[in-house]
Amino acid sequence: MSGLWVLQCRPGFEAECLEEVCAHSGGNGETLSGAVSIRTERDPPPLAELVFARQAFRQAAALQDLPPGDRINPILAALAAHAGPVSAVLLENPDTNDGKELAAFFRRFESPLRSALAKNGLPVRRDASRRLHLLFTDSRRVHIGFSEGGTGSPLANGILRLKLPRAAPSRSTLKLEEALQVFLDERQRERWLRPGLSAVDLGAAPGGWTWQMTTRGLKVIAVDNGPMQRELLDSGLVVHRREDGFRYRPTRAVDWLLCDMVEQPQRIAELVAGWCLRGDCRRAVFNLKLPMKKRYACVQDCLERLGMQLRQAGVDHELRCKQLYHDREEVTAFIALL
Fold first, then answer.
1. Which of 100, 119, 289, 322 is the catalytic position?
2. Sheet holding 88-92, edge to edge
3. Is residue 289 among the annotated active site residues?
4. Which of 3, 128, 163, 186 is within CB 3.0–4.6 Å of 87 for a Cys-Cys bond?
């Protein structure tokens, strides 16, 4: 089914987001600030299958020059043909400095908007199947649309907000925490992140990713020539190996391989492939640092090579990749051997 879609992404990656969606769904579009607009030949894949998009909805209307004294009535008029309950009303903004300045406006606007929507046939009900999105590029311009299920995110802007724990050695711990919540469901987290399981963290110093696993009771071999946080080493759950992450091999298979080393993405993909092919790990979370140009092509190349090597060796696996909110010039990938 064709349609006009709006997808949000990390600012600076609009071209990659547009290229990826066009590759999957055909059509053509334009880049916005922290988002893209595309008229597709087919519906885009679910968000979980897209690397660069963090939010998506089918556009129902786009309004310009909303009068400051009466923004609600034009929105109600645009939604007159779309009456019915919604599970959420998401006020959204581009993840830019200008977009973040809309927070104060949203606080004043949300309550009267919700009330007006409910009175005009769009009440919020938990059992409703669709979400209503209002993406404001500024306080007078808005893209309005709907998403259902996995086509969009129930989180405003598709962003999972996390707070940096005081005890964490570095902010990088948030990347792994977000990855574990995005790639694993609650049951998988209970099974695969329980006390007593094992992990190897390549490029571990100062210990942000190692800390994330030890808080769950896992035992970690932290591989890095740099220093680790002293509290981690005193926990009794961490063994620090001052070795080259590309040369280190475990004496027995571990449950998790973690890798956040700053290195060419193709080399990291080859490293992870080797661990999986040898049976050194059962699951892995790893980051691919992206080049300045051809970033979508780079990601596709790394994932296709990794997947091809495992398929040729007859290794059943699940491979997913996402540019997380806490990523910067990188993407995070997850692989599980089945």
1. 289
2. 28-31, 35-40, 3-9, 53-63, 141-148, 130-138, 88-92
3. yes
4. 128
